[in-house]
């Protein structure tokens, strides 16, 4: 299946919802015009469509292959990676000082989404490298930066994150890898790391591992962890590759999906290589015992990026399902028995396609708004704006990660269903998205980890301040919707279903009133849930944490629904006469569908959250040993 | 992962919810005692645990293999099938006249569930054979019955259903396979059939295909389809296998899951074999052009059986996740930081495990109630009881099929999530359930096909009569719950969460009140949805059919929730003092959790259904070409 980057929807979100004008007005982006943004994204779209999308199936079929400690990528991946590197895509949102383009995260986000939509397995390599670059940008020493940043940005070297060990998954307190300081200031690292994405491969000449390990005298738990740079090859005096370091790929995993992405078991200090005994040579990042704090920089970037992966897989699955449904003739028209139709004319298939679209577009809108907030948090001249945007971004990261990836599993599953029996046949391609998507709510922190973050650090810590401000802003949008609906929408009275069916447009006050009605109920559900979390957390923490994932999903549905409500208002501005182009008519329809069919989930979630006490007690009995 | 047949829960459902006593009192079951039922199910459990469960992984890994028209099953499958046949399991619920055990469907259902839970791919073979037996029982001629029933019941031969062709999936009007009558009364069948489960294999000596095909002068559409028996080998005069018929397996599919179940492309009339030119030799079942009607007999049996498969995969995924979560140590106790715990002590993992359990148990209860209704519809001495039970069974079949299988996808996905990163590794086994489960909402009629049946033939046709009677009966249960809750449950005032946590039991009126509160809201949601469907179907059919799957799911959640509410009342009867054994305490907790966390979905579904008009209009715009 060909992939087509959704440039029009991306630009709509940037222009109308994520405040691209405001971001481009920030200090440091003087050279970045709206035209440039569009040109970059169109170029990016072309690149991923042509160079990466065609490799998605072969990567799935062939998989990365391990033999004797080396990993061979599927045919075509190395060539594509060299093209990716040569075009400068790795440096898109990184500092010009190190050879990057210095573009806003708000531009980097859609570029990253497209990359992942074209080829999820491929894109994990740049995703991890982005994380290493982000960490070194913030906490690397000047020497570390000048040694590692240029080759990483050029795509000559790639990066990894090494957190997990067999006994230490979500629980980093259990990290046991050792780091022993040497007289020359370097460290020797030993231990085993698992689930290391692109821990070994043949795409680039060197791999820079960021590794969590424990120094001998460090305290127990997460406070005793330090962060180290461990390159696969050391750098020789002249800057060329030097000694082979003592880090080795013992095996790669046989996984449900993302087959082309090698998931490595790495052994540090096996006593091989060219650095002698005692472990792999590592360089301390920042100070000892601050490793987790630094790793969070990388993890926050990666969590946001994995949220984008969710949107990417959703977009890809949607395109595949749409194309199939538009071609597959089966059954007869509901309003004209006897006339054969393609299945995208059947109401149930329309429900599935519209659900896939609404979930994808709404998650995209929310994620890009978060990206814009990140840019403002770093560069806005007003300190209060910076602070609010930082708080907003921090609040949204677990939601973007959890919500977009849980949605991706649903969207990919619907994508299979649209295909009927053909969806279950591997050659069709829909099944790959269903398999690939399943890792997204797990890695870089499961949805539960995101949800605990949202409850603990993002809701309870500030006493619900950010949540209250969001509710206030959502109510302002609601008031605008209600005013527009009362004033007759764009074009006088609502046209009703049959007239709209005939003209092929959703229009008028009926639709805005529908959105307002459902959005209001969703805001109420959100407010109730936030109040419950604030009131109950200290009295019945088990009840609140039992409901943390529902709380995250509710927050996602309402905040993404807010963006869809704003999108509906934007469409009414753009199509004041009621007649519009196909894109905006479809976008408005997507907003209506989201309100009617997706937003009601917030009611069910709120009810469940508020019954948390009884549910938690029941769950405890159920799981009693 | 070992599998353990959930005999205790099965017996609870049979005894307390599905009226096993009433079924055993039916004419024809005089020889079947409660003790016999338990003994049969325990024996069945032992057989599937020992002979079938261990083959589940190897079947997935090795797959059925095609070469030169023959299919070789994974090692161990043939031996297991011979044991299955020798023990008489194929004939469990079939007529003693042909060598069956003649047990109620209410006993056959759990036996079939266990079979499928142990090994889904294996069990598809007996499932299809059951369908052929059912069809020949009702519409086969005496000659056909005596020729085919004994070897089918003995497991010497197996059966298949041949509906689908490349252009005819859900739309059987497009069936193009040809059947030409010969002078000797036989037919010659030619054409291509796809997606034929166990269409070729090496488990049995012969395969009996039931094939839909069209006679030359038949009308177009579904009314021109006839049904034929086409055996792989004809029967010689002495009853031994005769000439090789002209039906050939051209290939098998490379599928997302159920790898050991061969999904065949079958060619009829390729001009090979030992029956000469003109097509495969076939025998007309019943009369010409009544094929679809006969096939529906088989399909209804198969749809119900696929519903059981959904419960089976759910049970298997639940057991796998529970076992992993009980062993995996990660993180610290919420109420005692510093104490390491297994992950099944974390609230979010408890939410997932409890959700998996509640979805599985509720779907089981509903399916068994349907099975009991089927037995009564066939054998009850009172004609009105027969009629009501037939109407009830017909109403429930699409729900059991659609609801249980959609749940299975969710449960299997939660099962992966419970495992975290390990869930994505194929060797763990959780991923297989996620892949296997995905076919269930597709084959034997997609969820949309079930939902259209529920709306059209099961709700609109009788003007909502069955639905109204169900609502009335649910309200009776609700009244009972409310009365019990008001009278203080089993043991005086509710104990509250912390006390219950300490005693390890959910008990008292608080919990019954919770169930009553949520059940009442769910009944209201159901009544609203039914009324909407009845009111709107003729005015806005597109709105109603857009909401057909939500309508099916809503019906499933409330009807299964009804059984959970009845189960809660039964638990209170069984544990009148408030203290009970672990099984009933856990069952009551499962009912509470279902009410608190699953039933609220009915509100969201009802809201979406009632917004159907706006949503349908929007979906039409979204899918406009």
TrEMBL record, chains A, B:
Region named Disordered: 484-504
Signal sequence region: none
Family of this protein: Belongs to the acyl-CoA dehydrogenase family.
Protein name according to UniProt: 3-methylmercaptopropionyl-CoA dehydrogenase
Function summary: Involved in the assimilation of dimethylsulphoniopropionate (DMSP), an important compound in the fixation of carbon in marine phytoplankton, by mediating the conversion of 3-(methylthio)propanoyl-CoA (MMPA-CoA) to 3-(methylthio)acryloyl-CoA (MTA-CoA).
Domain Acyl-CoA oxidase/dehydrogenase middle stretches: 161-262
Species classification: Bacteria, Pseudomonadati, Pseudomonadota, Betaproteobacteria, Burkholderiales
Keywords of this entry: FAD, Flavoprotein, Oxidoreductase
Record-linked Pfam families: Acyl-CoA_dh_1 (PF00441), Acyl-CoA_dh_C (PF12806), Acyl-CoA_dh_M (PF02770), Acyl-CoA_dh_N (PF02771)
Positions of the Acyl-CoA dehydrogenase/oxidase C-terminal domain: 290-454
Catalytic reaction list: 3-(methylsulfanyl)propanoyl-CoA + oxidized [electron-transfer flavoprotein] + H(+) = 3-(methylsulfanyl)acryloyl-CoA + reduced [electron-transfer flavoprotein]
Domain Acyl-CoA dehydrogenase/oxidase N-terminal: 46-155
Major enzyme class: oxidoreductase
Oxidoreductase listed as a keyword: yes
Cofactor dependence: FAD
InterPro entries registered for this protein in UniProt: Acyl-CoA_dh-like_C_dom, Acyl-CoA_Oxase/DH_mid-dom, Acyl-CoA_Oxase/DH_mid-dom_sf, AcylCo_DH-like_C, AcylCo_DH/oxidase_C, AcylCoA_DH/ox_N, AcylCoA_DH/ox_N_sf, AcylCoA_DH/oxidase_NM_dom_sf
Location of the Acetyl-CoA dehydrogenase-like C-terminal domain: 510-616
EC number, UniProt record: 1.3.99.41
GO molecular function, one term: flavin adenine dinucleotide binding
């Amino acid at each position: 299946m060909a992939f087509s980057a959704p440039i029009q929807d991306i630009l709509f979100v940037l222009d109308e919802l994520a405040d691209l004008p405001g971001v481009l007005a920030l200090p440091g982006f003087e050279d970045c015009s709206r035209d440039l943004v569009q040109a970059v994204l169109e170029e990016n779209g072309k690149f991923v469509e042509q160079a990466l999308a065609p490799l998605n199936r072969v990567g799935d079929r062939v998989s990365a292959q391990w033999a004797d400690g080396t990993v061979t990528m599927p045919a075509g991946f190395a060539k594509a990676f060299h093209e990716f590197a040569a075009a400068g895509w790795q440096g898109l949102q990184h500092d010009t000082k190190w050879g990057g383009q210095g573009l806003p995260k708000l531009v980097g986000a859609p570029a990253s989404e497209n990359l992942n939509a074209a080829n999820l397995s491929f894109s994990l390599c740049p995703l991890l490298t982005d994380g290493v670059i982000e960490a070194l940008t913030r906490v690397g020493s000047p020497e570390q930066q000048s040694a590692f940043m240029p080759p990483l940005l050029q795509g000559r070297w790639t990066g990894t994150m090494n957190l997990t060990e067999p006994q230490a998954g979500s629980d980093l307190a259990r990290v046991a890898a050792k780091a022993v300081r040497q007289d020359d200031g370097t460290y020797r690292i030993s231990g085993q790391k698992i689930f290391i994405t692109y821990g070994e491969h043949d795409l680039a000449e060197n791999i820079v591992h960021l590794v969590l390990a424990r120094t001998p005298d460090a305290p127990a738990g997460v406070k005793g962890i330090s962060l180290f740079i461990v390159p696969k090859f050391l750098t020789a005096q002249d800057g060329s590759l030097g000694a082979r370091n003592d880090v080795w790929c013992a095996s790669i995993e046989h996984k449900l999906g993302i087959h082309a992405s090698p998931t490595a078991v790495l052994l540090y200090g096996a006593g091989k290589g060219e650095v002698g005994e005692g472990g792999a040579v590592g360089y301390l990042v920042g100070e000892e015992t601050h490793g987790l704090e630094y790793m969070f920089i990388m993890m926050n970037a990666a969590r946001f990026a994995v949220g984008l992966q969710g949107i990417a897989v959703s977009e890809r699955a949607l395109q595949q399902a749409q194309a199939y449904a538009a071609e597959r003739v089966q059954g007869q028209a509901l309003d004209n028995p006897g006339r054969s139709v393609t299945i995208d004319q059947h109401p149930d298939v329309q429900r599935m396609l519209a659900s896939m679209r609404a979930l994808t577009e709404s998650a995209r809108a929310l994620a890009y708004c978060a990206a814009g907030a990140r840019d403002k948090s770093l560069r806005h001249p007003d300190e209060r704006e910076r602070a609010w945007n930082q708080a907003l971004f921090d609040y949204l990261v677990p939601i973007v990660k959890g919500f977009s990836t849980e949605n991706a599993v649903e969207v990919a599953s619907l994508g299979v269903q649209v295909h009927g029996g053909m969806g279950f046949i591997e050659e069709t391609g829909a099944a790959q998205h269903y398999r690939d998507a399943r890792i997204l709510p797990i890695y870089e922190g499961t949805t539960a980890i995101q949800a605990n973050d949202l409850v603990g650090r993002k809701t309870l810590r500030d006493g619900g301040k950010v949540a209250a401000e969001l509710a206030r802003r959502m109510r302002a949008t609601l008031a605008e919707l209600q005013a527009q609906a009362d004033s007759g929408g764009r074009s006088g009275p609502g046209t009703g279903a049959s007239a709209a069916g005939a003209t092929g447009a959703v229009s008028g006050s009926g639709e805005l009133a529908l959105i307002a009605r459902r959005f209001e109920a969703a805001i109420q559900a959100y407010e109730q849930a936030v109040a419950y979390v604030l009131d109950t957390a200290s009295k019945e923490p088990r009840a609140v944490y039992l409901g943390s994932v529902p709380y995250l999903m509710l927050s996602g549905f309402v905040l993404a629904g807010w963006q869809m409500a704003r999108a509906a208002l934007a469409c009414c501005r753009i199509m004041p006469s009621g007649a519009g182009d196909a894109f905006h008519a479809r976008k408005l329809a997507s907003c209506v569908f989201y309100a009617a069919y997706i937003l009601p989930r917030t009611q069910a979630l709120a009810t469940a959250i508020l019954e948390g006490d009884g549910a938690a007690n029941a769950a405890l009995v159920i799981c009693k040993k």
